[in-house]
Protein 1
Amino acid sequence: MSKKPLILVTNDDGISAPGIRTLIEVMKDLGDVVVVAPDSPQSGMGHAITINSTLHLERVVIDSGKQPEYSCSGTPADCVKLAVNEILDRRPDLCVSGINHGSNSSINVIYSGTMSAALEAGIEGIPAIGFSLLNYNYNADFKASKPFVKQIVKNVLKNGLPKDVVLNVNIPNLKRSQIKGVKICRQARANWEEEFDKRKTPQGKDYYWLTGKFVNLDKGEDTDEWALENGYVSVVPVQFDLTAHHCIQQLNTWNFND
Amino acid sequence: MSKKPLILVTNDDGISAPGIRTLIEVMKDLGDVVVVAPDSPQSGMGHAITINSTLHLERVVIDSGKQPEYSCSGTPADCVKLAVNEILDRRPDLCVSGINHGSNSSINVIYSGTMSAALEAGIEGIPAIGFSLLNYNYNADFKASKPFVKQIVKNVLKNGLPKDVVLNVNIPNLKRSQIKGVKICRQARANWEEEFDKRKTPQGKDYYWLTGKFVNLDKGEDTDEWALENGYVSVVPVQFDLTAHHCIQQLNTWNFND
C-alpha cells in the first residue's frame, strides 16, 4: 500500500475547469490523488447539499494522468460526502478544493461552493484547504499560483491544521515575480451592494438578474482584502463554529419572561 | 407613514408552509409585515445565491391578511436581496426567517436555508433571527412556539442586536407547559454520519440518496443541543466572520519560503 498521503481534490467550477486541472497537477507531486468534482459549474452554491433529489457518480477520464476521477451530479459538499463514504477506501489525509476561477476572499467565503467543500471536509475531521485565483475567466493563467499552492499544502501535510479549522487561500491575479509572499489574515468585513438588472420577458413579465458591487468596509491591514490588494497570497483560517461567543453574556441580560 | 417597525418575513420551506404562516401571524402583532419567500421548498440550500439564472417574483395572496406577499423563484438569500433592493421602500427594522419545519441547531446552521436568509440580512446590516421547530412534519403544531417567538422578537426590537450578529433560535417539539424557558447557548460540535442509500436505476446504473445520522460529539451543558434535549428554547448568537482568530498566531510560525 502507498505511503503517500491520500489527497481528495474537488471544486465548484466543474471537473473539467482549468483551475482544478492545475490543482490536480500540483497535488500529484505530493500524494495519491482522487478527484470527485461536480459535473457542471456550482458557483454561488454556498453550503448546499442534495437532500430531495438523487445523486449520480460517473467514472471519467479527463487527462492522461493515472488519478481516478469521478464526476458527480451534486454540489461541492455532496462530492466530499460521496467521496468519503462511497468512493475512497481509506480516509483522505487532505482535501483540497479549487483552484476557483474568481475570488473567495472576505464575505465571499459564505457564498462559496469552493469553500463549502473544504468546510464539509473539515466537519468530517479531514484537513482541508480551498484555493481561489482572483480571475473569473475560464482561461485564467494559473501558472503563478502553483508554487504557492504547493508550499501551503506542504505546510499542512507537515504541521496538520488546528482542530475544526480549514484554510481559505486567495491568490492575486499577478505574475509570479509580482507576488510578494503569503500572509495569514482575518476575513475583511465587506459586503455586496446588490444591483438587480430588471428586464422583461418576451411575454412582458418582469424578471431579474443578480449583479452587484463588492464593497470593502474594512480598512484593517490584517485583512485578506488588504493582503490581496498589496500583492500577497491571503490565508484565512476558517471555522465552522459560527457562535458569536463574545455576545453570550450580553444576551443573558435580556428578559424572556414578560 | 406607519411608526410600526417594518418586518421582512421569509423562510426556506416555501411561502405556503405552515411554519411561515405562523410566523407571519405572530409578526402582525409587532409591526408592518412584508413577506418575500421561495415559491418552493429550499431545504439544505445553505447560503446559495442565484448568479447564473434569472429570478422571478410574483405578488400572491395566501391568506386573508393585509400583508403584501411575494413568491420568489430563488433561494432564501435571493429573497432577502430582492426584498431589500427591489420591493421594500424603506430598510426593514427586522428580518425573521422560518419557522422552519425541522431543527437548525448545531452544525445544521451551515446547511440551513432558514439561517442563510437571516445571515444575508445580517450582512446587509439588518437585525435578523431564524426560527426552527424540532419537527420535520408539514403538519407540525406551531402553537407552543408562538409565545417564545414573540418574546424573542420583542427583545430584539427593544435592544437591537450586537453588530454583525444574528440569532439562531430552535424550539423543542413539546407542549407549551413542558417548555422550561429560553437559554442563550453556543453551537454544539456535532456532525452527520452519512449513510448513502445506493440504488439502481431501471437501466441498471447506480445512484444515491443522501441519508444520515446526526451525532452530537459535544457534552457541554452550554450548547444548543443540551438546551433542546432538556426542554429549553435555544438561542445561539451567530456571526458571519468565520475567521478562526485563535489560530492566526500559530499559522504565522509556518514556513512558506522553502
Protein 2
Amino acid sequence: MSRDSLINAVRSLGVDGLLLVGDSICDADVCYASGFLSSDRFAVLISDRIYILVSSMERYRALAESRADVVETTSDYSMRSKIAELGGLEMAYANVIEEFVSARGIARLGLRTNTPAYLYRSLMEHFDVVLLEKPLEKVRAVKTPEEIAAIKDVQRSCESAMAVAVQLIRKSRPSGEMLILDGTPLTSERVRRAVELRLAGLGCETLDTIVCGGLMSSSPHSRGSGPLPPDMPIVIDIFPRSKSSRYFADMTRTVVRGEPSAEIMEMYSAVKTAQDAAMGCIKDGVSGADVHEAVCRTFDDLGYTEREERGFIHSTGHGVGLSIHESPSLSEHGEMLRSCNVVTVEPGLYYPDVGGVRLEDLVVVRENGCDNLTAFERELVIR
Amino acid sequence: MSRDSLINAVRSLGVDGLLLVGDSICDADVCYASGFLSSDRFAVLISDRIYILVSSMERYRALAESRADVVETTSDYSMRSKIAELGGLEMAYANVIEEFVSARGIARLGLRTNTPAYLYRSLMEHFDVVLLEKPLEKVRAVKTPEEIAAIKDVQRSCESAMAVAVQLIRKSRPSGEMLILDGTPLTSERVRRAVELRLAGLGCETLDTIVCGGLMSSSPHSRGSGPLPPDMPIVIDIFPRSKSSRYFADMTRTVVRGEPSAEIMEMYSAVKTAQDAAMGCIKDGVSGADVHEAVCRTFDDLGYTEREERGFIHSTGHGVGLSIHESPSLSEHGEMLRSCNVVTVEPGLYYPDVGGVRLEDLVVVRENGCDNLTAFERELVIR
C-alpha cells in the first residue's frame, strides 16, 4: 500500500485521525497500516502522518521495520507508574492512548466498530468518537504492485504444494474402494500433511487445507478425512499465508484418479466453462454482481439451475490480501471492481449423490481484463 | 477444562451469563469455552449451560465437535432478513446476539472488556452489562489432565525440533568467525527453517522461533539473523502450538559450538542453579513472586546482581496453555500458584559485551512440588 493513499483514505472518512489497536498477527488492518509484525497488541494512529505506539522493548524493531513516521513507546507516557496509580493494566493503557492521541491535536477520532469496549468507553469521554465499520476495506482492496508481487509469490508456493498433492494421488493405485500408496491407504490427512509440509518449507503457514474425496466433496467446506477413493472427485483447496509478507493466496483443483462418471465429467466441463466466463468479464468498472451473474447464467445454460442446497451454492469469489476473505466480493451483492483488486474466481457444483467439483484461480483486475496469477493445469483425470 | 468448572467460574462473577464473541483461532477464551475451532467469528454464552451461535454452514460441525450443550445458528434468528431490514451486517448481528442472549432470560450480562464496541454499545441498551477484565483467566490457569496431556504432547514436538537445531549446530564446523555446514554458513535462518519444518511435520505451527547467536543473544527477544558464530552462545527458544489441540509448549536451550569463554561458562552454571532453585520451590500455595524472588536471590548470591538493561532483565516465567503467555506469572507481582498450573521456568543472564544465556523448561505445579514436562539435556558445549 502507499502511505499517502492510506492517509488520504482516512481523511475522506471525515475524522481527524483513525486509531487502530490490535496485534498485527490477528488484525489485518493493524498489519496493513503499520507494516510492523508483532504478536503483542500495539496502537496505530493515522492522521497527518502515521504514528505507532509500541512497548519499549519493541522500539528499535519498530523504528527499523515499521512504515510509521513516528514511533513512540508506552514508557514515553509513563505506562508503569500509571498502572500503579490507576490500579490496572487496561485503565493505564486507555490513559496512555488518550495522551498519545491528544498529542496530535485530534478532536474527532475515528475508531473501528470492533475496538475493545474499554477503550471505546474511555476515549468517548475525551474525544468526539465516530465508530466506523471496516474503514480501511476499500483502500486495502486496491493493491500496489508490491502487494501483487507478494500475493503472486504465495500463489507460486500454493502451486508447488498443489503439485505435491496431485503427485501423491497420481502415484497411488486403486484397490477396491480406496487409493493405496506405498502399501497403505492414501488418506486426506496424509495428503494434507504433505501439502502443509511443502508450504512450511516455503515459509508459509496454513489455517487449514481441504483435501476432500468422494461424496463428502459435495459439501464445499468439508476439510476431508479418511481414505481417498478412486473414480471419484477429490477437491483440493489450498490457501496459505506467507509468514513474512503476511499475504494469502488461494487455489482449488478437483482431480480424479481412475475413471470419473459421465456426470462428474460434465460437471467439470461446466465449471471450467463458468470459470472462463467469469474471467472473460472481469475488468475495472464491472461489478462483482455482474461477474457472479455471468457464472450463474453459464450454469443455467448448461442445465445446472439449482442454487440452494445443491448445484452452485456459494458465491463466485472474494478478495484476497492480508485476509483470506476481503473486499471485493463476486456475489449477488458484489461491489464495483477496480484495477488492482485481487480476487478468486471459484465456481463449483455440488450434488450430495454425485460429489463436488470446484476450480479456483486468483486474478488481478486490470483496466481491460484480468491477469491470472495462477499457473496450474486444469485436468480432471490424472494419470 | 471441565464444563462444570467453567459454569461455576462464570457464576462466581456475579452475572447471569458471560458472552464471548470472537473466532477461536485468535481468541483463546472462545476456543476454551467452546472447544470448537473456527476462523469465523461466533458467539458463546456461558450461563446455566453453554450455548453457541454459529453460521448455519457450521451447524453440523459445531454439533459434532463443540462442547456446547446447545448449538444455534444465525439463521435461527433470521440473520439474512435482519441485514436487509437493519441495513448492515453488524447492526443485524448485534440484534441477533441480543435475541440469542434474551432467550436465556438473562438480565445481568458479563462482557469482556475487549468486546467489540458496536456489540457493547448495542447490548448496553438491553441488558445490565458488566465489563470484566480477563474473566476466564483463573479458570484457564488450572489445567485438567487432558489439557496437561495436550501440552506435554506439544512439548515432545518441541524437543524433537530442538534436537534438529542442536544436531545442525553439532554437525557444523568452525571456520573463522562462522559455523559452516555442507559448505555454506550455518545461519539463524537456516536453523529456524529446519526447526519449523520439523514442527510442521508434527502438526505444529509457530508464531516465530528464536535462533540467536553471538552478542545479539544478549537481547532476549532478538529472533536472530545471519551466520552463527563459533565459541559464542546460541540461544534457541521454540514455542510451537498444536494445530489440532491449539495448546502451546515452550522451551529454550543455550549452546556453544567450540570453546565458550569462562564468563559464559559461569553464566551458564548460574542460570542452571537459578533454574533448579525455582524448580525447588514451586508448589501449590507458593506465589509466583516467591519463585521469582528465589531466582533473584540465587543470582545475587552468585554475584549477578543487575536487573535492568543487563543481568537478569526479565521475569522467571509465565503460564502456558491456549495462549503462549497466560496466568500465573512468575514475577515480582506473581500471584499464588495452584495445582495444575502449567508454567515456564526460564531464568537468563544477558550482557551486551558477553552474550546471553537462557534455559527454559515447562512444569506442572503439584501439591508438593512440580512435574517437569521437559525432557531435554542442559549441556552448554555440544560436540
